[in-house]
Design goal:
Largest sheet: 5 strands, antiparallel
Distance between the termini: 41 Å
CATH class of the largest domain: Mainly Alpha
Number of helices: 8
CATH architecture of the largest domain: Orthogonal Bundle
Radius of gyration: 22 Å
Length: 319
């Protein structure tokens, strides 16, 4: 909590609130800076990751709760760039299946960066998957369809804006139930290692991403990422969510190198082989086709876009 404490009095560092009579207010000049004072009240801590701590906070100006992500102190410059990029892309990419970013700031005396975002209620897909595994359960195909309908729609939107996520995986998909009704909404999270295709640089082909889901060309750094890189990771995630196990489950306890070699060389099983036989053949075979095309070793053999994968998947799964 001490890391976020300076946010409690951020307003005092900016300006004192002042509201003149309307007829006395001077006109705003084009070069003038209008500063709006705001104070966030920390309610509790929601979680902690490698780069930051996420708090539930209250915004008294707009009278709403938000999630406040605070960068940990002492991190290297690369981590700070990723943190800032997550905020900037979240603000730029407006979509129902992406998290909205409301505000961003820096407390210069401590170099403490933070951003306020939409407060989500639910769990990430990795945690949901772990809970289902422990109870010996599988997700319903309707739920899978709703989740990947949202994930792939969000990816299609980001790709149209020239952004490649590069870290699509269940842990970066947050599932929340809609206020009214039985549907769920999936939100794609964490654009910290995303690549902007309109700003090609040396970082575009750096090795990044989770070795459990990374595409061969991304793992090896042999070519710049594109939409098909994210399609591959979405396909790997789809297999795991549908079947309850990773395509290379036997390698998860081993080294990253072993997983990367499997992505590059090993043929994964078909998801239909691991699904109950009472499921219609059309669904099991349809999932096999979607997975095989999404996770082809050669990017040219994959779906050309997330939108193409979404259409193919929704032809198979109920939603």
């Amino acid at each position: 909590m001490d890391v976020a404490a300076p946010l409690l009095d951020v307003a005092a560092r900016v300006t004192q609130p002042f509201a003149p009579e309307l007829d006395e207010a001077p006109p705003v000049r084009s070069r003038e800076l209008v500063i709006h004072s705001k104070q966030y009240r920390i309610v509790d801590t929601l979680g902690e990751g490698g780069m930051g701590i996420v708090h539930r906070a209250y915004d008294p100006v707009l009278e709403r709760e938000v999630a406040l992500k605070v960068l940990k102190p002492g991190l290297p410059a690369a981590a700070r760039r990723c943190f800032r990029q997550e905020a900037l892309l979240g603000a730029r990419l407006c979509h129902p299946n992406l998290v909205r970013i409301f505000d961003y700031g820096v407390l210069p005396e401590r170099g403490l960066e933070w951003f306020a975002m939409e407060l989500l209620r639910g769990k990430d897909l990795e945690r949901l998957l772990g809970g289902a595994r422990r109870r010996g359960l599988r997700f319903s195909l309707t739920l899978v369809g709703q989740v990947f309908d949202g994930v792939l729609d969000a990816l299609g939107h980001t790709h149209r804006h020239g952004i490649i996520h590069r870290d699509v995986k269940p842990a970066n998909v947050f599932v929340t139930r809609e206020t009214h009704g039985t549907r769920v909404t999936a939100k794609l999270l964490d654009f910290g290692v995303a690549c902007d295709l309109r700003r090609r640089d040396g970082d575009a082909i750096e090795r990044c991403g989770d070795p459990r889901y990374v595409a061969p060309e991304q793992a090896l750094g042999t070519s710049p990422p594109d939409a098909r890189t994210d399609v591959y990771a979405a396909g790997m995630s789809l297999f795991e969510v549908v079947t309850g196990r990773h395509p290379f489950e036997d390698l998860l306890a081993g080294s990253s190198e072993g997983l990367i070699a499997a992505h590059c060389q090993r043929e994964p099983p078909r998801p239909g082989e691991l699904l109950p036989r009472e499921l219609p053949v059309a669904i099991r075979c349809g999932l096999d086709v979607v997975f095989a095309k999404a996770c082809a070793k050669d990017p040219d053999e994959r779906f050309a876009s997330a939108a193409d994968m979404r259409r193919a998947l929704l032809d198979v799964l109920p939603c």
